[in-house]
Hints:
Blueprint: E1 3-12, H1 16-27, E2 32-35, E3 50-51, H2 54-58, E4 68-71, E5 74-78, E6 84-88, E7 98-100, H3 102-116, E8 119-121, E9 124-132, E10 135-143, E11 146-157, H4 164-168, E12 180-189, E13 200-204, E14 213-218, E15 224-231, H5 240-251, E16 259-269, E17 278-279, E18 282-284, H6 300-320, H7 329-353, H8 358-371, H9 378-388
Parallel strand pairs: 1-2, 1-11, 2-8, 5-13, 11-18
Antiparallel strand pairs: 3-7, 4-7, 5-6, 9-10, 10-11, 12-15, 12-16, 13-14, 14-15, 17-18
Helix pairs in contact: 1-3, 1-6, 6-7, 8-9
Amino acid sequence: MVKSIEYDVVVVGAGPAGSMTARYAALSGVRTLLIEKRQEIGSPVRCGEGLARHFVEDTKLPFDRKWVAQEVKGAKIFSPNGTELTIEEAHAGNEVGIVLERDAFDKAVAKEAARAGADILLKTTATAVLKEDGWIRGVRCKQLEDEFVVKAKCVVAADGYESQVGRWAGFRTLLKAGDVTGTLQYRLTNIGRGHDFPDYCEFWLGTCAPAGYIWVFPKDDVTANVGIGVSLDRLKHRHDIKGFLDRWLAQDPRMARAQPLDMVTGGVSTCAPISKTVGNGVALVGDAARMIDPITGGGIGNGMTAGMMLGQTLGRCLEKDDFSEAALQEYEKGWRAKLENGLYRNWLAKNKLVTLSDQEFDDIVKTLADVGVTKLSVRAILKVLKDTNPELVAKFAEFI
């Protein structure tokens, strides 16, 4: 006989989106279980670790220096010929402001979920969803050698961009190769000075990273996450990603004596928002719901924001004892009103950006650097270019 336990809500995945959902659901009086397949929340780290500080404030996450590696002044954008554009932190986008210690950060968000009353199980993998009469009624789980069932009024899929839970529940989550970016990142130390390192996050554009970019996110005065994202449709072999990054490192004088402390590989979706994120007894959040910025590949802040919305909605669903697709529309409409327009616009822009030549990137960045742009957003940049060099934005006319 398989053991069965019951909760109001079970959240699958203890990243920032899942833990924030669990936190706000528990604060709303929802009996919440948060499960994580790994043995340690936040590890291994698989991202550049950048975050705009307003997400911390917006979601009322207690600030703690323990999960801050470096606070930066803003972002520097580099064209292929080295032309430099500097944008200050307040306007530099969702991945700039704080460079996190991501393992400590994820634990901190989960700790707030526990403090609010959520239960947490580690090394616990969801192996199937329970379906009944068009509803999702819970998940089958395995923890070490023990198998059991979690019955719940709502299952939250917060299990990343490859979300198995979403797929099992019937959501259309297939991705084209052009909407997946392969990534590789070193944590390098013994980095030399230059380009105002370590005061800015850096983004390097052009054929150094086909249909992607190289990033340098400082962790301290001599250490940084240095990584690359390349669209899968631009690769013959996945290991080509390492070659692109290694060649770039070889030509940057600051990296001449740099040494690796770790290396991680992975992937990220860079697609448009999916058409549906709720059903009867089920909701998707964070990367599982394709809330990742299609241009930058960053998703921490959006996942936190949507997780807060979903947790609050789940509280109202409990009050009505109604976790139907109709009742969960409050969350669906809420996150879309906040995030969808920007995500969709950036997906369309991404599809145009990947067609630009190195010369076009050089011209665009030089124009922006000469004129000055105060905000790192597609719309703000294109408006400046339209006024100063309109032929550069012919491909982007529909965005202005």
